[in-house]
Predict the 3D structure of the following.
Amino acid sequence: MAMLEVRDLVVNYGSINAIKKISFDVNEGEVVALIGANGAGKTTTLHTITGLLKAKSGSVMFEGTELLKTPPHKIVEMGMAHVPEGRRIFQQLSVYKNLTLGAFTRKDKDSIDATLKMVYSKFPRLEERKKQIAGTLSGGEQQMLAMGRALMSKPKIILMDEPSMGLSPLFVAEVFKIIEEIRASGTTVLLVEQNAKKALEIADRAYVLETGKIVLSGGAKELMNNESVKKAYLGE
Amino acid sequence: MNFLSYLISGVSLGSVYALIALGYTMVYGIAKMLNFAHGDIIMIGGFVVFTAISSAATSPVIAIICGIIVCTLLGVVIEKVAYKPLRNASPLAVLITAIGVSYLLQNVALLIFGSASKNFPNLFKNVPDWHVAEGLTVSGVTIVTICVTVVIMVGLTLFIHYTKPGTAMQAVSEDRGAAQLMGVNVNTTISLTFAIGSALAAVASVLLCSAYPLLNPYTGAMPGIKAFVAAVFGGIGSIPGAMIGGILLGVIENLSKAYISSQLSDAIVFAVLIIILSLKPTGILGKKIREKV
């Protein structure tokens, strides 16, 4: 059984049928990429998995629990963190407070402190700026904060939505290096990216989404050599 | 000396506005709605305390506690029954519902207590007046009002900044979806906000009615509107803004009553509001959130 199993998921956005019966799996320890153009339904898919949007039908099973029937605030406690599109850090709160909000559902103060140390060692810039108001960080630093905040919940799986969007090449490289590290530490990653080349380089497997449907899937290397993927997403 | 005494009673009146404004501003910040029934919670609080004292002859302390409990429950129930089903409805629908709840509370009070004004007892008559100097006396009610308000404001600020539910409130107020992703229960947080706001309204009702003893079903309406103005004045959604806005409003109102005209005092208050808002549309401490991509 896969860690995350999405089956026949249908999501409507008002009157628009945004997701049309998609199914995919994420196995423990994998990095799985969802790639596709703007408006293909990638963000909608992630938002539905973590309960920010309601599904019309289908099923999302996470380690045997139906997420579509789970109250959204319980999902993070089950071991799923979501780094949303546009980071959505709490701009008016300090860096430190943002990180503690990441551990909101955890109770043991000692182990929270240990995670905080781990996050600070991964992102030294966040420790330097822990008292700063998060809205004053640069875009790249805000992305680091969003990732650090997600790690604070000690997730088994992290959903990442466009982590490289709007960042300088230096930060893009940094973001993908961190995703590698997260995988190496045993955490599963479901990655949504418009930067298909970078995403396929790092992923084990990928699904290609087009106007709400999965049109292609397979191993990342295999998709990288697929002619239509090359033409549509890799600009070759 | 006269000026000082007008100023102090202005601060005292403003403290009451500030306590009410906190309810408006917290609910606006966290639930993103204007709870126009908030003023009427004050009136209900006044009647509960009045009834407890006059017919059940309870001690003032117990009566005040009853008032706080009833108002807190009422606030939470109103949110659950009237506003929660409209969580994703248009803001206009929620606003109209809030006005409806306001009329409902006024009319229920009218039905139970009648329209004749009751004479609210001064619960703080045992607190001695303070003769600061020749010609300057601060009444017991004023002292109690200012002290209670200071304690509540400090307590609330500590609560918001240093407790988990307080942090949850800050998170929900900034980004409800992101807060939910952190595992914050948005519904519980909104309920808590209504509970705190309504409890503060109950406290405000006791202070208000002790200083201005006429209690009828419309008692809460005008202070409610003025406190709303105070919240906008200070920057709606901002807690320190509501405190500053409330006190400033009370001071301006009292000084214009004393030196310009008691009939025009409300007009002057609103004129100052218009001037401030035209200079700074977000209010004194209102935040402008900058988007960063």
Observations:
- The two ends of chain B are 56 Å apart (CA to CA).
- The interface with chain A takes residues 164, 167-168, 170-171, 174-175, 177-186, 287, 289-290, 292-293 of chain B (CB under 8 Å).
- The longest strand of chain B covers residues 130-133.
- Chain B has a mean pLDDT of 92.
